[in-house]
Amino acid sequence: MLQLIFLMLSVLSLSFCGEIVATTYPVYYPLKYLVGEKHRLEVLVRSQADPHHYELTPKDAERLLGANLVMTLGLESWEWRLLKNLPKGKVVTLSEGINLLKRGSFPDPHVWLSPKEYRVVVRNIKDALVRWDPSQRAYYEEKYSQYLQRLNSLDREFESTLKTCSYRTLVSTHRAWDYLSRDYGIKTLSLSGVHAEEEPKPSEIKAIVQTVKREGLKYIFAEVGHDRKVADFIASQTGTRVLMLNSSIFPQLNSDDYFSIMERNLRALKEGLGCR
Questions:
Q1: What is the pLDDT of residue 50?
Q2: Please, are residues 192 and 198 in contact by the beta-carbon 8 Å criterion?
């Protein structure tokens, strides 16, 4: 079906939609900063629902075909299908050099939730821009240096905050935080899999309830934009409270960018894990 959509649209005279398309917000934010006013930029997946289950629409296919360049992490199954259906040279994947975690045979895509690992993505974006538009190399290098300084500062903030936590276990409704766990020494337990809409089994809920009680946790975490009924049930069974985390980095405010969202996430983690 996807191939047919692209085939039908490719024979039409398409209006220009945007010079660069970022597939998701974790790609869009640093790309927007590095590009500045040099090129037009759009983001493909705008919903705050789980982007893992994104389905391409004919309008989205038109936007992709009308772009000069498409940037994607290339870690989701729908992103792999894009790579096969868009013309060669149009799509840039940004996963090279990432120290990926895997769930079975599939990569965990949530690299942006560790500022430490996210630096690789930003470097790859910069390198791709330089290859595509070498006349602006100095501009992109300077903007990258500025962005990297902010990322390094955020990394230090996560590191210094999370090493002071009274509780070392993060219980969430979405298995999105394993990169943060690996890079900052926090144990994670999730109520569902890598995809936030996967329903946990009753036995998994029971095991989580037992762990929360045994470790004396005060808070568990739910995901912005996703159903929190399971988290509320866990909270009712354990006497805990629910705090919200934004794992998709969807902008909740018009002024939001990667840094403002991750700083809110860190504040929630600090409260929920009892960090100083």
A1: 63
A2: yes
Query: If 0-12 CB within 10 Å is exposed, 13-18 middle and 19+ buried, where does residue 24 land?
Result: buried
Contact partners, residue 145, CB within 8 Å, separation at least 6: none
Say how far apart CA 196 and CA 254 lie, in whole Å: 24
d(CA 4, CA 158): 45
Q: What is the CA radius of gyration of the chain?
A: 20
268 class by beta-carbon count within 10 Å (0-12 exposed, 13-18 middle, 19+ buried):
middle
Q: What is the pLDDT of residue 10?
A: 45
- Specify whether the CB–CB gap between 30 and 137 falls below 8 A: no
8 pLDDT above the threshold of 50: no
CA-based nearest residue to 179, from 260, 256, 91, 95: 95
The string of DSSP codes covering 138-206 is HHHHHHHHHHHHHHHHHHHHHHHHHTT-S--EEEESSS--HHHHHHHT-EEEESS-SSTTPPPPHHHHH
Q: Looking at per-residue confidence, does 20 or 5 come out higher?
A: 20
User: For the chain, what is the mean pLDDT?
Assistant: 89
For residue 111, pLDDT beyond 70: yes
Beta-sheet pairing, 106-107 with 102-103: antiparallel
Instruction: Quote the Cα angle for 37-262-176, to 5°.
Output: 115
- The answer to whether residue 265 scores a pLDDT higher than 80 is yes
Q: Which of 15-19, 201-205, 249-253 has the lowest mean pLDDT?
A: 15-19
